[in-house]
Amino acid sequence: TIENAVCGIQAIKVDEETGNLDQDYTGGMVWADGAVFRNCRTAAQFWPYDHSLGSSFFRDCEFITNNDLLPGTDPDFFIKTSGLSRLTIIGSSFTDTHNVSGTGELTSGIESYDTYLRTYSYIGQQCEFTGLLDGIRAYAHNPERTVSIKDCKFDDNVRSVYLGTIDNATVTGNEFYTWADAGPLGQDQTYCLYLDQSTGYMVEGNYFQNTYSPGPLGIGLIVNQSGEAPNEVYRNYFTNMGIGILAHDRNRGKDDGLQLRCNDFDLCTSDEVVTISSPVKYTGIAPSQGASSSHPEDMAGNLFYIPSPTPNDDYDDILNEGDHITYYYPSSYDPQFWNVKPVDYTQSTVEAIETVVSPSWTFENGCPPPDDPGGGGIGVIKDKMASAGQKTDSTENLLSLLIDGGNTEATQTGVDNSVPPETMQVYNELMAKSPYLSDTVISTAIEKEDVLPGAMIRDIMVANPKAAKSEKLMSKLDERWNPLPDYMKGQILAGRSIVSIREETESRLASFKLERAKHFNTLARYYLNDTIDPEGSMDSLTALLDNENSLSAKYSLAFISLEQGAWGEGLAVINNIPVQFELDAQEANAHAQMAAYYNLISGLAQEGKSVLEADSSQIATLFDMEESESGMVSIYARNILLALNEMEYD
User: Fold this and answer.
1) Are 97 and 103 in contact (CB under 8 A)?
2) What residues contact 470, with CB distance under 8 A and at least 6 apart?
3) Residue 184 has pLDDT above 50, yes or no
4) What pLDDT band is residue 471 in, cutting at 50, 70 and 90?
5) What is the average pLDDT value for the chain, to the nearest integer?
6) What angle do CA 451, 416, 418 make, to 5 degrees?
7) CB count in 10 Å sphere of residue 372
8) Which pLDDT value is given to residue 534?
């Protein structure tokens, strides 16, 4: 038992004369089994250290703050880590029961910065986080630190779990119960799980419930800006929440993004809410929720809380402020699952499509439990990924031959350079390529007012129903010198209720991409969490990323090289990105910032320093990066500044 300590365990050398911490001497492996940490300001704190041969762990331990807390103690996090290669928490409890007058006086559970963190149950005993300000707050400054939270219980915390820029996180089988005093503070101030600027996550089989308030209160899950990669939130349960799932800003790309599938909502004020702070290129969640398919498991499969079968236009099933989505639900289903069909949703941005499936949909056959990642071994996962990749490639090849007749640039140039005598020729060509015209070509056609009159533009957009679902294209119609009359715009907007064969094919493509991404992420998580052969797994992860043709994979590959001391190799990967990929203006700016950031971090590493030893000029550079709003670099810079206590972030 350690109690009444400023810091119970401090894994760093302290200068005996000055009391200063010596960053050249960090480490100290901590094995705690059945220990008690009571009324300490901080129970244990770790600094950067590579536990390549093992890890520190706390098993069956108690972390307690109670009314015997000494006056003026000002409790902080029970455990704080910075740059630790691995920390495992097993079957332990983190509890604050002392009398407080404000939330700022509460203890928090674990603050994990740039650390491989794992928390899970032990012989049936859950990790429990109770009565805290923050249960777990984890963030990182590169994409290769991950977190695994399994089978834990979070009860009566203001905010249970926050993951900031934590890729490949695992959050499965946990119980989340909202904060008892959420009412006075407001439900937007309390949440169970927040994924911030993170991707590749596995969020499955969790229970989110408000048990303290008689009415719905609090937010279950927040997903903020997970980007354009295929992601999924699958088979979670939400009861009596103010908002079940809140997806904010960019969680989609052109064809991919976040799918919310097979989640069960009961007694929630709002089940799925999609919000945006400002319009950007792509906003909201994946264009296809589920897919056009005869298989029950390809449906979106959410079970909504529907107090009345009559919509009252408060959009409590799906409220979507982002770009248009198509939601696929089964036409035939077991009667007990009648609420698989959304009733009250934002009709201007959501098209609910009834889809024939066989056999009839049930939660069991439409939402099967996920495969055991270890079932059949790594070879089976690789085979499944390869199979999904082949389906993806063949579907992409088919679409590439059809979209704009197989040549978007030539079609767009032909429209752009056309003159009035070529009106019928251009019109017939565009109609012949429908419904496979791209937004780029349709946008150019709208601008060619001297060639294509309003009636022809109407015909072209009606023949391409997907165009009606683009607010940018619809707004562009109003920018013409002679805007289309309302009745023509109405004919175009009727396309919002139509799903063309092109969109059906694109939905299946998105489904194949999601399937492949899930297997890819399973492999990445396996390699990152391997404790038996970490060196071999890191080689396998490097090979996996090297063969992946995506920006995020190449940035991850560069930071793996950095962690292994191969700074030059990582820099070569960074410098080669503009050669491998065609970057738009926003991506080019983000890449320039990423290169500068990489040079700063690798420069510190080559000096034998961690980011926690950044000097004043480097800190100033980090502030510039944080304020630049240049994608992930800004968030990584913010996380370092937070670890250095140079700024605060709520």
Assistant:
1) no
2) 323, 324, 439
3) no
4) confident
5) 93
6) 45
7) 7
8) 82
What do you get for the CA distance between the two ends of the chain, in Å?
33
Q: Tell me: pLDDT of 541 over 50.
A: yes
Interatomic CA distance for residues 145 and 112, integer angstroms: 10
Q: What number is the average pLDDT over the span 467-488?
A: 92
DSSP 43-99: EEEE-SB--TT--EEEES-EEEE-TTPPTT----EEEEEESBS-EEEES-EEEE-S-
Coil, strand or helix at 232:
strand
Which residue's structure tokens are 């790309």?
A: 253
> Are the C-beta atoms of residues 334 and 299 closer than 8 Å to each other?
no
Rg of the chain over all Cα atoms, to the nearest angstrom:
26
Half-sphere exposure of 194 (CA within 13 A, CB side): 21
Sequence letter at residue 315: Y
Helices 486-493 and 454-463: angle between axes, nearest 10 degrees:
10
pLDDT at 377 over 90: no
CB distance 434 to 409 below 8 Å? no
Given a cut of 60, whether residue 188 has pLDDT beyond it is no
Asked if residues 108 and 137 have their Cβ atoms less than 8 Å apart, the reply is yes
Task: Let me know if 476 is exposed, middle or buried by CB neighbors in 10 A (0-12, 13-18, 19+).
Answer: middle
In contact, 229 and 205? CB cutoff 8 Å: no
Structure tokens, 197 = 């600027």
If one counts every other C-beta atom within 10 angstroms of the C-beta of residue 308, the result is 9
Contact 60, 122 (CB under 8 A): yes
Q: Give pLDDT tens digits for 30-71.
A: 999 999 999 999 999 999 888 766 789 999 999 999 999 999
**Is the separation of the CB atoms in 620 and 646 below 8 Å?**
no
The helix (run of H) or strand (run of E) holding residue 127 is none
351 near 499, Cβ under 8 Å? yes
Taking residue 43's Cβ as centre, other Cβ atoms within 10 Å add up to 32
pLDDT band at 389 (very low <50, low <70, confident <90, very high): very high
168/524 Cα distance (integer angstroms): 7
Query: Residue 526 CB: number of other CB atoms within 10 A?
Result: 17
Q: How many CB atoms lie within 10 A of CB 16?
A: 7
Give pairs for 452-456: CB < 8 Å, separation 24+: 452/423, 452/426, 452/427, 453/423, 454/480, 454/482, 454/484, 454/485, 454/488, 455/488, 456/423, 456/427
Q: Decide: 353 and 326 in contact? Cβ < 8 Å.
A: yes
